[in-house]
Amino acid sequence: GQNIDQPTEMTATEGAIVQINCTYQTSGFNGLFWYQQHAGEAPTFLSYNVLDGLEEKGRFSSFLSRSKGYSYLLLKELQMKDSASYLCAVGNYGQNFVFGPGTRLSVLP
Amino acid sequence: DVKVTQSSRYLVKRTGEKVFLECVQDMDHENMFWYRQDPGLGLRLIYFSYDVKMKEKGDIPEGYSVSREKKERFSLILESASTNQTSMYLCASSTDRGSGEKLFFGSGTQLSVL
Prior knowledge:
The complex is a heterodimer of chains A (109) and B (114).
Chain A: E1 3-5, E2 9-13, E3 18-25, E4 31-37, E5 44-49, E6 53-57, E7 60-65, E8 70-75, E9 84-91, E10 97-99, E11 103-108
Parallel strand pairs in A: 2-11
Antiparallel strand pairs in A: 1-3, 3-8, 4-5, 4-9, 6-7, 7-8, 9-10, 9-11
Chain B: E1 4-6, E2 10-13, E3 19-21, E4 23-25, E5 31-38, E6 42-49, E7 56-57, E8 64-70, E9 73-78, E10 87-94, E11 104-105, E12 109-113
Parallel strand pairs in B: 2-12
Antiparallel strand pairs in B: 1-4, 3-9, 5-6, 5-10, 6-7, 8-9, 10-11, 10-12
């Protein structure tokens, strides 16, 4: 199976840094993805890790450790518009993706 | 930009009705997916397709069927709608099969079955 866990909710302050964790148990996967979903909208792609380590993309970074079954999304210089749900997903060979339950992030002024 | 279009944003149906949810993508993607999204459960895969007339069951296919007669269109069919199928339905597409290419999502259809 591919059980994926994320915290349900997080709160942070504008300008701060927040780390959203994702743990998984899986028999194997191609890559680990992070998506952002604003309320009432479709998910949009944020980042993708194939190899262990950190991938940086502006204010957003994502980290993967396959040996530990662990990933995190790091958001720096938080803005109000970053208030959204963040979805961790495992992409398998053959292109079927399995998503975690999502973490709802609230950014406060 | 890739565009994935779902035919309805909101839909209200009665128990027992046959329901069609349509999805069209305009970027010639090989792969198309149907997910449902429920609070606390995240996105769950119903069916996916790698090619025309090809379909694969996802994690929760019961009560659903799909049709892919053309590459750009992937339809989800609820043969006899039930109240537990009230949910947000999301269609997605991707390309480059087998390499973990990212998904592009439609804006979703909020289906209520009364």
